[in-house]
Amino acid sequence: MGRRSLHTAKLAVAAFAAAAMMVPLAACGGDDHPETADDGKPIVYITVRRNVTDVHVEDMPFSQELEAACDCHIQWEEITDNAWGQQKSAKMAAGDIPDVGLSLFDLNDVAQYPDYFLDLSEYMDDLPNVQAFFEAQPTAEKMVNDDGHYYMLPSDRGKGYRVSATHMFINKTWLDNLGLEMPTTWDELEQVLIAFRDQDPNGNGQADEIPMNIRDLSFGLWSPLVLLNSTGITTNFMGSSASTQGYYVEDGEVKSYYEADEMKDVVAYYNKLMSEGLIPKDTFTRDDSQYASQTQNDGKTALTGVSIGWSSANEYGDLADQYVTLPPLKQTADMPDEDVKWDYSMDGTEFAYVLSVNPEAVNLDAVMKVINAMYGEKLSVEGYFGSIPDYVSDDGDSQYTISDDAYVNGRSDTAVIALQDRFAGWIPDSVTIVNDTNADEVTASDEACKEALGHVDPTGDVIPIWARPSQEDNETLANNKTAIDNFALNKLATFIQDGGVEEGWDTYIEQLTAESLGLQQNIDIWQKYYEEAISQ
Ligand code: MG
Questions:
Q1: How much is the CA Rg of the chain, to the nearest whole Å?
Q2: Separation CA 457–CA 323 (nearest Å)
Q3: What is the pLDDT of residues 178-223, one digit of tens each?
Q4: Distance from Cα 207 to the centre of ligand 1, integer Å
Q5: Full-prediction pTM beyond 0.90?
Q6: pLDDT digit string, tens, across residues 341-385
Q7: How far is the CA of 383 from the centre of ligand 1 (A)?
Q8: What is the distance in A from the centroid of ligand 1 to the CA of 227?
Q9: CA pair distance 433, 422, nearest whole angstrom
Q10: How many whole angstroms separate alpha carbon 52 and alpha carbon 82?
């Protein structure tokens, strides 16, 4: 208790100090940050985080169209992911906040430094495009709604990304080579993996096959723990959902994955596979780079039979044609079909927290014009996919076709020539995007999961992503999480690697639920926010 209070007190002091340091900046507007240009038009300062900066935003026709819409000048600052990661804390502590930030902050930052974030709910009359967005996509509105205030705006990259972020893949060429059926249960998968191990499915005369490859245990993207969905429990391993913290809901009751009997089943199953040589024994200790060399290899000979990732193209590169999505498996053959679920991460895949405004921004009228323009259809498409007509053609009737020229540096997305997933905007469901390679690939990979995803009750099986604890509760959750994960993730990895789950489970549960770890405290916190969220 004492430790937590002290930590909270320190944060409060830091926030106070930062707020005090903001005062001189408010009066700024000096030579390096003029409020108006020589032509008398207002200047809006926007900082955007990007994953590549080969082509600058200011050179994109998209930027000139935005300037025309706001009758203002925009001064862009671009910051790479790495640089932002290094500078963010210092900049926030110093109050060095841009007028408009794109993909810089999240709601934890808002909770920690509330003074840096303008309440946009007071400007909605100036933002009809954002209003229309919120009416069309209530989930996006709920994500940012903080007791009726909006301190951030979300983005919506369109229905092409309304997909689970995680898929399980199997080498269909190998199945065909060995005359095997697609497995539908855990037992059938095990038999297929044994055949992959023993029957040289890649046909090179060597026993070089890795029947199944998995990443480290986590509640994040592409975790092997998505197999929980076979047991009837739903995961949402994306973004900052309660699921990524380790919690789910069943019959209105919040529970921990760590404590579930179904987790024991998943762990026992993986241990069986590993002990039979079907998953590399050094999975949890090897260098991460080995994973890609085993899935993508030389682009000619496949080495991996089954793995879990985003899209088959992303996971297997030049070998992608050999792989298909493995439809979500039943734990046992006698389970009813509707009990099989899949990773329900589509909200976090489609929507993102993206735009923030500094309350000290001088030209707020111009800022609102920029924002409203960004959330219009055409500029949203240009912001994400590339300027029209250079990279995208406007085919009429809300159809847009991306030119192959938009895909540079070997990328299957448009991050070089557009803001891509760092954009602020709304691509409505009425828009059709042709030749969006990344969406087409992941949508194809998602097809086989649609039926299982249809079994998920979005608010009964999943803690919605708009369930958001307060700053104080977040502190408690995070402190407890560190202790819980340190103990439980290691223990589960050991069970998978070395066995002992049957004999060791009760002791593990006893230690896991010791009051000192705070698991029950975290469950109680999420219970409160879950109930609030579903009544919203
Ligand atoms: Mg071989």
A1: 25
A2: 29
A3: 999 999 999 999 999 999 999 999 999 999 999 999 999 999 999 9
A4: 5
A5: no
A6: 999 999 999 999 999 999 999 899 999 999 999 999 999 999 999
A7: 46
A8: 27
A9: 18
A10: 10
98-117 exposure pattern, b = at least 16 Cβ within 10 A, e = fewer? bbbbbbbbebebbbbbbebb
Distance 200 CA to ligand 1 centre (A): 4
SS3 185: strand
Q: CA 182, CA 175: separation in Å to the nearest integer?
A: 7
Has residue 1 got a pLDDT over 50? no
Q: How many residues does the chain have?
A: 536
pLDDT at residue 19 is higher than 90: no
Cα–ligand 1 centroid distance for 489 (angstroms): 33
Token pair in block for residue 526: 């999420």
48 CA distance to ligand 1 centroid (A)?
A: 47
The one-letter amino acid code at 118 reads L
User: Which tokens in the block code for residue 515?
Assistant: 């009051």
Amino acid occupying residue 143: M
Instruction: Return the ∠ at Cα 96 (arms to 102 and 111), rounded to 5°.
Output: 65
- Tell me the torsion sign for CA atoms 454, 183, 194, 272: positive
CA of 214 to the centre of ligand 1 (A): 19
Residue with the two structure tokens 């439809």: 327
Strand partners, 170: 306, 324
- Strand segments (E) across 223-361: 247-250, 253-256, 304-309, 323-325, 351-357
Count CB atoms within 10 A of the CB of residue 251: 7
Residue type for 391, please?
A: Y
